[in-house]
């Protein structure tokens, strides 16, 4: 059994896990759910002794992980499928783990067969796909035939056949009396695999109950009722009868009724008494995903929004999109937190440079520029002093006039100053 008591973990000013207490019992698959950044991986690391809690403690079979004798033979874990030396083959990787834990070498071939990697056991792991890496990580967790198993996103990267295999494997391990603790974001898989749920949000416990109780507590069941589409008066009669009986009927987009507050037999009796024919009368129970979304909606740290530029084409030169906001690149103001558009990123006639805003200048070159100080023809260089006026036009047939070269760059009269030879970092 896994037990956490008052687990708290702080990283500076950020609290990743706060006062978290729960138990993971043997004989059942316990799902560990929560939004990204809620502290699931941190909690698992504290259980396995990889992170020291700021306060509280976690035990496995009554002892901290670090004090367990020959821990790999009692606890198996998959936290990071990429924690493998890429130059080693799958068999070499598992054999090294087995030798460190005193596990017979024959067990390596057994777990390779369990996870389906026996045909690629001699291949270097750096050439493995994401799904193959997950299978190798599961094999490492099963290597010591442990009684306690922790898996963090075990189906990540697996194909449908692999997902089904992991689901059946978890159930089989739990049926053997083992403690199985699984973290996942796939609600459909958790609904089919888990018997019990522990849900956290922003590092705090939100729920610790069975899957069935979790769905019931965080969703509202309803009945879907449909009357003949060609007879709207029957729909109105049924709606009135449901309201008089204490139920609520709401219209669905497809014309059906969503009825709450009344059981299906009562709805059927009301329709019969009102002489209303029913085309559909079906129960609807919320899925685990619906219940999970409802519970954790206030604990989501990373919430997406609609892209204000979605469906818009880039503005052509000198053209602002219809409905655009003048003065902003692309016709749109910047998103919150973005920098203002560069005031110098504007189109100007050839041979001219944009005028600088009052009090503004071009930023100085970054320190350690790979080619040294940028070349300059003189004043009109973007890293030099901003000119006050465009270059003067030239007479027909006469060579173009060039500004005076900058100090340190002599040039023949009437000719541009030569560019300095670029220098790399080593030469400087």
TrEMBL record:
Transmembrane segments: none annotated. One of its GO terms (molecular function) is ATP binding. Keywords: ATP-binding, Nucleotide-binding, Transport. Signal peptide: none annotated. Gene3D superfamilies: P-loop containing nucleotide triphosphate hydrolases. The keyword ATP-binding applies. Residues 322-428 are annotated as: Disordered. InterPro entries: AAA+_ATPase (IPR003593), ABC_transporter-like_ATP-bd (IPR003439), P-loop_NTPase (IPR027417). It comes from the Bacteria. Residues 345-360, 394-412 have a biased composition (Low complexity). The keyword Transport applies. Residues 2-227 form the ABC transporter domain. It holds the Pfam family ABC_tran. PANTHER family: ABC TRANSPORTER, ATP-BINDING PROTEIN. Belongs to the ABC transporter superfamily. This is ATP-binding cassette domain-containing protein. It comes from Streptomyces sirii.
């Amino acid at each position: 059994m896994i037990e956490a008591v008052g687990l708290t973990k702080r990283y500076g000013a950020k609290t990743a896990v706060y006062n978290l207490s729960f138990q993971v019992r043997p004989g059942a698959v316990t799902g560990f759910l929560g939004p990204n950044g809620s502290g699931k991986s941190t909690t698992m690391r504290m259980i396995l002794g990889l992170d020291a809690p700021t306060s509280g403690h976690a035990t496995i079979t009554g002892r901290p992980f670090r004090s367990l004798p020959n821990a790999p033979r009692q606890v198996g874990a998959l936290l990071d499928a990429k924690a493998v030396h890429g130059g080693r083959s799958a068999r070499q990787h598992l054999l090294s783990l087995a030798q460190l834990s005193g596990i017979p070498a024959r067990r390596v071939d057994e777990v390779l067969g369990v996870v389906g990697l026996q045909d690629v056991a001699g291949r270097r792991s750096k050439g493995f796909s994401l799904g193959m890496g997950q299978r190798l990580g599961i094999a490492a967790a099963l290597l010591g035939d442990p009684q306690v198993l922790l898996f963090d996103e075990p189906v990540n990267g697996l194909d449908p056949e692999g997902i089904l295999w992991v689901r059946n494997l978890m159930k089989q391990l739990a049926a053997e009396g083992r403690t199985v603790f699984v973290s996942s974001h796939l609600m459909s898989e958790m609904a089919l695999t888990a018997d019990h749920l522990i849900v956290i949000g922003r590092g705090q416990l939100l729920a610790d109950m069975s899957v069935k109780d979790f769905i019931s507590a965080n969703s509202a069941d309803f009945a879907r009722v449909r009357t003949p589409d060609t007879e709207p008066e029957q729909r109105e009669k049924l709606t009135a009868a449901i309201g008089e009986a204490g139920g609520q009927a709401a219209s669905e987009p497809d014309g059906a009724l969503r009825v709450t507050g009344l059981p299906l037999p009562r709805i059927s009796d009301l329709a019969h008494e009102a002489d209303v024919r029913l085309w559909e009368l079906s129960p609807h129970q919320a899925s685990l995903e619906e219940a999970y979304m409802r519970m954790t909606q206030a604990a989501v740290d990373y919430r997406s929004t609609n892209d204000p530029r979605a469906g818009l084409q880039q503005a052509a030169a000198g053209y602002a999109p219809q409905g655009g906001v003048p003065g902003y690149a692309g016709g749109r103001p910047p998103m919150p937190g973005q920098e203002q558009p560069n005031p110098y990123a504007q189109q100007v006639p050839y041979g001219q440079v944009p005028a600088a805003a009052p009090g503004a200048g071009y930023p100085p070159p970054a320190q350690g520029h790979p080619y040294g100080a940028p070349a300059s023809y003189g004043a009109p260089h973007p890293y030099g002093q901003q000119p006050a006026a465009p270059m003067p036009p030239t007479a027909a047939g006469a060579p173009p006039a060039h500004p005076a070269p900058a100090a340190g760059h002599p040039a023949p009269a009437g000719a541009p100053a030569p560019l300095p030879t670029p220098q790399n970092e080593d030469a400087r």
